[in-house]
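Inverse folding, one chain.
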């Protein structure tokens, strides 16, 4: 798949490189989840300038330095003596080279030094502080493990805190980019095809690339590929979780699985999983691992106890709902049965994903100050069907205007009278002085 989007990030990386090459060395940190395209972005930004790319594999320090030294000689002709066994000495020689030559130095999966030699972070900090002002190195550091990269560069107790002159958090492709990609591969795509691509990949570039390169350009083929034998996607969720949490992720796994299957309130999650200290577990998933987000009714107070939890990552939502839930079918090789279940359930599952799609689309296209859903009541209460619930409430930036919208896969299922009653309720509670726009969004509006 060709390189799509990322022009804003390319422009920022170009700006930083120009400063590094003309004034003094700069350090830029590029983070983002696994498969989000960090390395491809960095390499694209450096493709016309001298570059040394180094991948920090989980190896011992001496072996790594031997590999790095060979690559430095091959890529840039840097003189590296034989027998360099510490990254400290290797990095010092690279910075010395930067006194006379401008070049990009890329350290990919930098967080792996935690497993190799944690002292590297303070050693890099010491050498960087001594040499950055009289050298011309464009240092680009990337990493996929959110917890470690956040700790290395944003924890004030860590040696590299405050050293980065730029921090780029790479996000998934937006709805408009997904449209362009699907149009390139399938000019006659339907909106249901687009929704399937969005719902299963969440715009993660590698996942999109795998589907497009394998001809999975419509809803049927996309869903079949997600749960086919030998599919990348079957084990991908485990890899993502283990990468972040290590192998002891069982409790988190249970909580995420419950949320993915519609159990979104902490009391019900605790009841379903049997986890006692559910507050601490969810807090870690939210703050440390960035996998769960807290949803409150829009316009509610920050401390409101009316809270629902949601898995942020679209792929993980899909993976827990179908791949984890039906492991018995996978283990017994019942692939056709699994595909049938996914395809039959997809219209129900994708209804909620369609709501997320329109929230992303509105944020991309309009000047939105605040967006979310609104509800009264609790799903845990008996005989409470959340009659008072609105899919989308979006407050515009810079003007007293609000959009209140219902989302239906099929617009024929929209019921105007109960929706109007909820709009009146919101107007009286929060928006009496606002201009209110109402909509029903459906597949035809994508």
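Residues assigned per position:
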């Amino acid at each position: 798949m060709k390189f799509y989007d990322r022009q804003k990030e390319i422009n920022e990386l170009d700006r930083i490189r120009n400063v590094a090459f003309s004034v003094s060395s700069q350090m830029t940190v590029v983070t983002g989840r696994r498969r989000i395209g960090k390395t491809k972005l960095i390499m694209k930004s450096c493709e016309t300038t001298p570059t040394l790319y180094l991948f920090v594999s989980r190896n011992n320090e001496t072996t790594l330095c031997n590999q790095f030294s060979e690559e430095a000689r091959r890529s840039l002709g840097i003189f590296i003596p034989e027998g360099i066994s510490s990254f400290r000495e290797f990095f010092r020689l690279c910075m010395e080279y930067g006194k006379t030559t401008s070049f990009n130095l890329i350290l990919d999966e930098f967080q792996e030094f935690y497993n190799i030699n944690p002292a590297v972070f303070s050693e890099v900090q010491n050498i960087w502080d001594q040499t950055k002002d009289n050298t011309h190195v464009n240092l680009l550091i990337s990493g996929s493990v959110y917890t470690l990269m956040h700790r290395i560069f944003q924890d004030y107790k860590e040696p590299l805190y405050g050293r980065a002159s730029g921090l780029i958090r790479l996000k998934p492709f937006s709805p408009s980019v997904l449209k362009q990609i699907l149009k390139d591969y399938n000019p006659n795509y339907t909106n249901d095809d687009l929704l399937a691509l969005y719902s299963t990949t969440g715009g993660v570039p590698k996942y999109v690339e795998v589907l497009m390169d394998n001809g999975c350009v419509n809803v049927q083929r996309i869903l079949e590929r997600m749960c086919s034998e030998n599919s990348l996607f079957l084990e991908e969720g485990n890899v993502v979780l283990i990468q972040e949490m290590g192998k002891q992720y069982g409790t988190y796994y249970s909580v995420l699985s419950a949320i993915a299957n519609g159990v979104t309130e902490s009391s019900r999650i605790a009841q379903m999983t049997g986890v006692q200290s559910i507050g601490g577990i969810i807090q870690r998933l939210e703050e440390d691992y960035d996998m769960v987000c807290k949803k409150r009714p829009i316009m509610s107070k920050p401390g409101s106890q009316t809270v629902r939890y949601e898995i942020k990552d679209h792929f993980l939502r899909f993976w827990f709902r179908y791949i984890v839930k039906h492991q018995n079918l996978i283990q017994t090789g019942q692939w056709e049965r699994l595909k049938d279940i996914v395809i039959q359930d997809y219209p129900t599952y994708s209804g909620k994903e369609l709501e997320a799609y329109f929230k992303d689309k509105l944020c991309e296209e309009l000047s939105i100050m605040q967006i979310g859903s609104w509800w009264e009541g609790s799903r845990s209460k008996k005989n409470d069907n959340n009659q008072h619930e609105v899919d989308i409430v979006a407050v515009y930036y810079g003007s007293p205007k609000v959009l209140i919208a219902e989302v239906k896969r099929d617009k024929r299922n929209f019921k105007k009278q109960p929706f109007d009653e909820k709009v009146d309720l919101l107007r009286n509670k929060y928006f009496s002085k606002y201009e209110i726009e109402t909509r029903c969004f459906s597949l035809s509006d994508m």
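The first helix runs from residue 7 to 22. Confidence is low (pLDDT under 50) at residues 380-386.
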